[in-house]
Amino acid sequence: MTCRKTQASLSAYIDGELGGQEMLRVRKHLQQCQACAAEAEVLRFAQQLLADMPCPEVPIGLEDRLVNHVFAGTGSLQKRSTWRTWAMSSTVAAAAVALGLVAWTVSHGAPQRQSDPATLAQSVDQNEAYFAGGDPVSPHAPVFSVSDAP
Amino acid sequence: MRLNGRLLRTPLCIVWALSVSISTGAPPKNPESILLQIFKRTVAVPYRQLVTMRGGPGSKGHMKVSIVGDVRGRSAMTILEPLTETGRTIIDDGVDLTTYIADSKTVITQPSPRRTEPAPEKRVALTKRNYNLSIKDGGKIADRATMVLTASPKEESLPKRVFYLDARALTILRQETLRPGRTSEVTLDTYHIEFSRDIDLDDLRPSDTAEWKLSTWPAPQPFKDWEDAERQCKLSFEPPVDFPYGFEIVGGYLIERSKALNIRLSDGLAHVSVYLYNTKLVKLPRGGRSVGKVVNDIGINIYSDLSTSIEQEFLKVVAQGVKSRL
């Protein structure tokens, strides 16, 4: 499985929405590819941030009022609905921008967390390649993943 | 211009003549002397070798690589396949290790790992202690006569290593690993080799790198003082007196900005790499190609080219060292 295919399926993989075979293929790739494993960690972290956000309380009687408005179909409601639609769209857009910022900050690692699991994995990969290069009878080429380049 | 036989014949004759005169005396027939020459990377005439070899550590796949070695023991490797790695050139001149990555126009420099490697004589002695070495004449590889150096481990569960060497230059032409109960695995195989005094390793350095991104990576920092290393990594570890299968410590390094400890073990030919780290500071993701466990918040991971059951033996011994002082 290629990195591109894996990364396209990562979100579904983390949500447990992939079929058995596909799930196994992604899991196998993540075990072998440090770059995609790091990407998966970032997604998991972003997902955890979302899950930890407080869920707003729904006002009492909202459902009844919504049903009444839908069946009443008055002009004033249409105006208010337009305003509400705009307000809701703005809120969704603001949330999307905020989420984007969180994801960007996490993926670009502005202030790196001290216990970022991916960090040591990359160092190990580079370290093993480094010593493979120094051994004239090493069974491996001294090659590390290009994505490890800082 | 199409090449015809006559045009080709002249340079081939020169290469052949040089290859015949490579030997500045009879190559040694003693396995220990041959091994010493390999570890020292001693060659009489520069060579260029086209090989298939295993990819990076942990990889089971193979890549096509051009290898150049010169009389000063310097070496260069250019990856030809797979396409995702094509053009990557790694040059080790004994002082610096320089990696040129054409795709991302990046040059990475590090101190050469040869600066801190164990003395070749010590490595030969360690190999001799753990392996029975033998030498015999072999067939031809890439049209070159070979000698076969076999290293049979005294511990039966370890793999046997077979090196097919150029009978004159002692360059490794083929390398095989034979694991107990499994078919042999060729980790390096040569399909072309040429010897010429005109081969210049510096010609392999890309010339138009003025605008490339230059990165300087630190080398793993060797340490000699265990207590200081433990203090920096915030862990406690007492190295075992004896490691399994005749392995011994050949190096200790601080990595990851001194948050993790890398202990390198060897039996002369095979290597086992041990990582120790305080899991409150750094972590390794689960899975991957190592065996590992966490003992009293200290993470232990073992990387090697050996079987998982052998790695588990090392894990057990190292874990005892962690326990004993916590």
Offer a quick outline of the entry.
The complex is a heterodimer of chains A (150) and B (326). Chain A is an all-alpha fold and 150 residues long. Chain A has helices at residues 3-14, 20-32, 34-52, 62-72, 75-108, 117-133.
Folded structure, characterized:
- The complex is a heterodimer of chains A (150) and B (326).
- Chain A is an all-alpha fold and 150 residues long.
- Among the domains of chain A are: 1-55, no CATH class; 58-97, no CATH class.
- In chain A, 71% of the residues lie in helices and 0% in strands.
- Chain A contains 6 helices and no strands.
- Chain A has helices at residues 3-14, 20-32, 34-52, 62-72, 75-108, 117-133.
- Chain A is elongated, with a radius of gyration of 24 Å.
- Chain A starts with a helix and ends in a 17-residue tail after the last helix.
- Mean pLDDT of chain A is 65; it is low at 74-80 and 101-118.
- Residues 1-9 and 12-24 of chain B have low confidence and may be disordered.
- Chain B has 2 domains: 5-216, Clam (outer membrane lipoprotein receptor (LolB), chain A); 221-323, 2-Layer Sandwich (Phosphorylase Kinase, domain 1).
- Chain B has helices spanning 5-20, 31-40, 120-130, 226-233, 308-323, and strands spanning 47-54, 62-69, 75-81, 89-92, 96-101, 106-111, 131-141, 144-153, 160-166, 172-178, 185-195, 213-216, 221-222, 248-255, 260-266, 271-278, 291-295, 298-304.
- At the A-B interface, α2, α3 and α6 of A face β6, β10, β15 and β16 of B.
What is this structure's SSE topology?
The complex is a heterodimer of chains A (150) and B (326).
Chain A: H1 3-14, H2 20-32, H3 34-52, H4 62-72, H5 75-108, H6 117-133
Chain B: H1 5-20, H2 31-40, E1 47-54, E2 62-69, E3 75-81, E4 89-92, E5 96-101, E6 106-111, H3 120-130, E7 131-141, E8 144-153, E9 160-166, E10 172-178, E11 185-195, E12 213-216, E13 221-222, H4 226-233, E14 248-255, E15 260-266, E16 271-278, E17 291-295, E18 298-304, H5 308-323
Parallel strand pairs in B: 6-12
Antiparallel strand pairs in B: 1-2, 1-11, 2-3, 3-4, 4-5, 5-6, 7-8, 8-9, 9-10, 10-11, 13-14, 14-15, 15-16, 16-18, 17-18
